[in-house]
Design brief:
By secondary structure, the chain is an alpha+beta fold. About 30% of the residues lie in helices and about 25% in strands. Strands 1, 2, 3, 5, 6, 7, 8, 9 and 10 form a 9-stranded antiparallel β-sheet that branches. Helix 8 crosses helix 9. About 40% of the residues are buried.
Length: about 425
């Protein structure tokens, strides 16, 4: 689980400061304020960690099949107005499940631009407990490896360049002697934390009438939800203890949202094609023939049960095309899944109904107020972040102006308009 995030000179952010992240973290705010940038920073590191090129320092994207996001160039990522040094940085803290060799650690990496225009690590710091390991860029692409507070580097040279922003080179690890295994384990823990991110974006695929299945389970749901159907097919058709686990979980939440009673996987004769049937009020309909809201929320429900335990689930606008009740039930999904499956939710949303239900869950003591983080983001010259302070009873102590619009002002305007029209009718 990620427990802290900090960005410096990264796109809309001059400096976010330290942002605590909880099992359920909501990002709210105006359009184009910088909410998505917080999410994108972790996606940038994830696609870098998964790059097939070990020598890459930062994978800015461009591969539409394998990359999560295309960040463009160094100039597109660097915060506008940055003069000296022309660098941006990403830092985070994390905690791993009990039994992991590295149970907690920190990552901090800054990036600059080479004379050829490529992005290069300027300094990489990995920390666990009292131990810190740094790889610092020197002249002409050489790096120095430093440990803790030692004044002299353990090793210098081009062979010390970090791999994929997160790992020390084999030569650097060898030079660290007894510390080499620790820094290797720490690099692996950082990689697993990033690879454990499951991301679902705001634009999801429309449903088909039927689907082929190749008798395998997908690796991920995918940023557009393309793997959600395969995950449901695998859940229903693969034998084992987990059979129907995802299907049953999704069906339960569809029922709680009052949009369906049950979801069923149905085979077309003896073929390898299957259709998803949505049951409601005794009638079964093909997924293609029901409202768009069900097909759009389906990947959200699937990812909550398909993502491995201990992973971080990042969602953008999970409430899209849902009616208010269903939007509020999403809050219950995030809370219950985070507690039962030990997954973390980092959610960018515009839904007042989802947010209000989070307050209610805290008030009902179903969620400790220190197990959720709520942030309001807005933008002037640069993005700014305001933590919303919630007490033990779910009350927000520092509401921003017009947070969800001016509901009091709207009611006042309606009352005045009504009084004015009644007066005019009386005079007529």
């Amino acid at each position: 689980m990620f427990t802290r995030l900090r960005l410096t000179n990264f796109k809309a952010w001059k400096d976010t400061g330290d942002i605590p992240l909880k099992p359920v973290t909501l990002l709210l705010g105006t359009n184009s304020s910088g909410k998505s940038t917080l999410i994108q920073s972790l996606l940038l590191l994830k696609q870098t960690a998964q790059s097939p090129d070990r020598t890459v320092h930062l994978n800015l994207g461009g591969d539409e099949i394998n990359d999560l996001f295309n960040f463009g160039s160094f100039e597109d990522v660097l915060h506008q107005g940055s003069v000296s040094p022309r660098q941006f940085s990403i830092a985070f803290d994390f905690e791993r499940p009990d039994g992991s060799r590295i149970q907690a650690g920190s990552f901090d990496c800054s990036y600059g631009q080479t004379s050829s225009g490529s992005v290069a690590v300027q300094s990489l710091s990995l920390r666990t407990g009292a131990h810190q390991f740094r790889s610092v860029r020197r002249d002409k692409g050489a790096f120095s490896i430093l440990v803790d507070d030692e004044a002299q580097p353990r090793l210098k040279g081009r062979n010390c360049a970090p791999e994929r922003s997160i790992a020390f080179s084999a030569d650097a690890i060898a030079a660290l002697d007894q510390d080499g295994q620790l820094v290797e384990d720490l690099s692996l823990a950082v990689r697993r934390e990033l690879e454990g991110i499951s991301y679902l974006g705001p634009l999801r695929r429309k449903p088909e009438r039927d689907y082929p299945w190749n008798k395998t389970k997908p690796g991920e749901v995918g940023s557009d939800g393309r793997g959600a159907i395969d995950a449901l097919l695998a859940s229903a058709l693969l034998k084992g203890e987990a059979q129907n686990y995802v299907v049953k979980g999704v069906s339960r939440w569809l029922a709680r949202m009052k949009v369906a009673d049950q979801l069923e996987v149905r085979q077309h004769g003896r073929s390898n094609r299957y259709e998803l049937m949505v049951h409601r009020d005794g009638i079964a309909c093909n997924l293609r023939d029901v409202g768009i809201g069900i097909s759009q929320v389906l990947p959200v429900l699937v990812i909550a049960y398909f993502a491995p335990s201990g992973s971080t689930i990042i969602l953008e606008e999970p409430e899209i095309h849902l009616h208010p009740l269903a939007q509020s039930i999403l809050a219950e999904l995030f809370v219950e899944a985070s507690q039962e499956r030990k997954v973390q939710f980092l959610v960018e949303t515009h839904s007042e109904h989802l947010f209000r239900r989070m307050q209610t869950l805290v008030a009902q003591d179903k969620l400790a107020h220190d197990q959720t983080a709520l942030y309001f983001i807005e933008r002037d010259a640069a993005a700014t972040l305001k933590p919303l302070e919630m007490d033990a009873f779910g009350a927000v102590m520092n509401w921003p102006p017009n947070f969800f619009g001016d509901s009091v002002g709207e009611a006042r305007a309606q009352a005045l308009a009504r009084a004015q029209r009644l007066k005019e009718q009386g005079n007529g």
